[in-house]
Amino acid sequence: MNCTQQGTGCQPGAVPARICMQEKKPQTIGEFDPSSLFESFFKVCWDLAVRPRSFFQGLPRGGSIRNAFIFFLICAFLSALFMANLRQGDFALFLFLLTANVFSAFVGTLLLHLLIARGFGSQVPLAATFKVIAYASLTDIGTWIPVAGLFVYFYGLYLLFLGLQETHLLKPRQAGAAVLAIVLIVSVLLIGLLLMAPEDLNEALKRIYSEGL
Description:
Elements: H1 17-24, H2 37-50, H3 52-57, H4 66-86, H5 91-120, H6 126-136, H7 148-167, H8 172-196, H9 199-212
Helix pairs in contact: 4-5, 4-6, 5-6, 5-8, 6-7, 7-8
């Protein structure tokens, strides 16, 4: 069977029709698009779950961080909401968790990018580092789930590893070192926020961590 259908973009008799149709409708991988909020969000979730390396390979290294930031805010909002509800916390706890997520992401991005640029000589823009952290934050939505949350957390680290490796063109050991660094940075930041939190929030967060363990 030859490709004789019009509008396929192939010359008649050149290749089989099924190949023409595959070339006509390739599977596309792209950034989150707020204009089609739900469809694009679940599309990105699917890509990060089943073909994360391809997703990060196609991620623009420069340009605006608007779309990635909105995606991150959705994940941070849902993560804080689920955690606060699970621990029967009030709005203050929800706001604290949301603020901590946003604060850690931006400060972590700056420090991680500085480490990669100075330590490994990467010249990729800062926006690329933030995008990796923003899209890897998808796993934050599921880290509150008992037992399974631990696997989700490590998958999030794997997404960071892949994202940094592909966007900054790092060697595996370099990407691994960068992931370890960001884990330590975020841990220190969260401990600092815990120490500075009001007493009621402090007790609530201690209860979260003790029950989680």
